[in-house]
Amino acid sequence: MKIVFFGSPASALPSLKKILETDHIVELIISQPDKPSGRGKKLIPPPVKKMALDLNIPCYQPLRIKQEQSAPDIIKETQPDLNVVVAYGQIIPSPIIYLPKYNSVNVHFSLLPKFRGASPVQWTLLGGEEKTGITIFELVEKMDEGDILAQEEVDVFPGENAAELEARLAQTGADLLIKTIARIDKIKHRKQDHSQATYAPKIKKEDGRIVWSKNALLIERQVRAFTPWPSAFAFLLEKRIKILKGRRVENKTNTLSSPGELLRIEKEGIEVCCGEKSIFLIESLQPENRKKMDAYAFSLGAQIKPGDKLS
């Protein structure tokens, strides 16, 4: 089968690799444009494009695929049997969706119709879900509303952050994708129950700012959901600090301090007062313009003490 693969970030690589291990042929890869990164604003290609270059597979990077009039013709030249879409990052128009013989399939990192949208992994963790999964569905122009072809449930591990969960889902999705492609002309389509739909809108950098008046459990979920990007953060002595790992302290409350106040500093981390008398333990962090470190090691160098306050 001739395939055109749409994908951009590292989470799309397992699916691409799995396809390349089969007898299917990837005729063309379509990825997001290179983006500036770092202080020098050097253009960095997305991981999927890097793999395309390594394997000498043609790669097309339209700025806005919906607006590129030549895009359908470029894809048509490859005579694809199927488009495969994994975390591409753009809305694909219907002339491209329905161009191949078997149309287009999408690998989505949730159990649709739950968490439709750009950030299903993050919203799964923010919501405190104990289970999530992979959905292979037929792409349509409306966001994540196509017929379901296959699904597989995946447990969310305690303490797991977004990067860890996404990596596991990417592998599960790759395996399920190959099984689905093998039966593409035999699979019975299942309509989604749109009345049960929930949404996972795109995460923004400012969403990472911690509000210490919230319950520590919600802050724990925020830290997990936003690691590694955009990172949960707060300010201490006017310096921005990324909170990389932490947890709610069980069976312990505080009634005398205000939210954001440092309570105790020990080798296991820094305890912070949160809303509803709850306590959050910061275990690892990254100070502004410095490397990741244990919270206790940071406390020694920064000379912080109980009573200091995170804003």
Describe the model.
The chain has 311 residues and is α/β, with parallel strands linked by helices. The protein folds into 2 domains: 2-196, Rossmann fold, CATH 3.40.50; 205-302, Roll (Methionyl-tRNA Fmet Formyltransferase, Chain A, domain 2). It is 23% helix and 26% strand. It contains 8 helices and 15 strands. The chain has helices at residues 13-20, 47-54, 71-76, 94-97, 120-126, 162-182, 216-225, 295-302, and strands at 2-7, 25-30, 35-37, 42-44, 59-60, 82-86, 104-108, 131-138, 148-155, 232-236, 239-248, 262-266, 269-273, 279-287, 293-294. The strands form 3 sheets. It has a 7-stranded mixed beta sheet with strand order 5-2-1-6-7-8-9. Strands 10, 11, 12, 13, 14 and 15 form a 6-stranded antiparallel beta sheet that branches. Strands 3-4 form a two-stranded antiparallel ribbon. α1 runs parallel beside α6 (162-182) and α5 runs antiparallel to α7. The longest helix is centred in the middle third of the chain and has 21 residues, at 162-182. It is elongated and about 70 Å long. The chain starts with a strand and ends in a 9-residue tail after the last helix.
Question: Can I get a quick summary?
Answer:
This protein is of the alpha/beta class.
SS-derived structural category: alpha/beta
Describe the sheet with the most strands: 7 strands, mixed
Please tell me what the overall shape is: elongated
Number of helices: 8
**SSE topology string:** EHEEEHEHEHEHEEHHEEEEEEH
**Overall mean pLDDT score?**
96
Q: What is the total tally of β strands?
A: 15
**CATH level 1 class label of the largest domain:** Alpha Beta
Strand order of the largest sheet: 5-2-1-6-7-8-9
Report the sheet-strand fraction.
25-35%
CATH-assigned homologous superfamily of the largest domain: Formyl transferase, N-terminal domain
CATH architecture of the largest domain: 3-Layer(aba) Sandwich
Distance between the termini: 56 Å
* Integer count of domains: 2
Work out the helicity level: 10-25%
Radius of gyration of CA atoms, rounded to a whole number: 22 Å
Look up the CATH topology of the largest domain. Rossmann fold
Note poorly predicted spans: none
